[in-house]
Design a protein that fits this description.
The protein is mainly α. The protein has helices spanning about 5-35, 45-80, 85-115, 120-155. It has four helices and no strands.
Length: about 160
């Protein structure tokens, strides 16, 4: 008879996979925007500088999100986290993924479809989700380490 793992074990792995894909999309967007920066920008170079900021934003958010996804996957795959660290790590990965959906996907759509999309408060919310994801993932990792240290010292 085949042993089936509970659904709660597969859900963080699926979230980690989806978040990693979003992180890769963010890195791809950084590359695409980087390619649009001219070698000798016309005028004072303000537009090229602004595009450079978008490139850095996409690259940083993409790397952080992939790290959050990787941390969630590694902890849930190689350890048996308790409820709190699993939830914190999942929250971190979800926040990272949502930050890409709110920050990077509209920029990518504007580049691909040559549209100007008014982003307004979406950018602010996306920027706020980046540190929330990093803090939640970091806390989840710390709580997992503390839990393991406690269980090792009891044994």
């Amino acid at each position: 008879m085949e042993h089936v793992q509970p659904m709660s074990v597969h859900r963080p792995r699926a979230i980690a996979a989806g978040t990693a894909v979003l992180g890769a999309i963010s890195l791809l967007t950084a590359v695409l925007f980087f390619e649009t920066i001219p070698d000798n920008p016309p005028g004072d170079g303000f537009a090229a500088g602004l595009t450079g900021l978008f490139v850095m934003l996409c690259a940083i958010v993409g790397v952080l999100t992939i790290a959050e996804a990787g941390l969630l996957f590694l902890v849930t795959h190689f350890r048996d986290p308790t409820n709190l660290p699993r939830r914190l790590l999942t929250l971190g990965a979800v926040a990272g993924g949502l930050s890409i959906v709110l920050l990077v996907v509209p920029m990518l759509a504007s580049l691909v479809f040559d549209l100007f999309l008014p982003l307004g408060s979406v950018v602010g919310i996306g920027l706020l989700l980046v540190p929330i994801g990093v803090i939640a993932s970091g806390l989840g990792a710390v709580v997992q380490l503390v839990d393991e240290f406690r269980s090792d010292s009891r044994a």
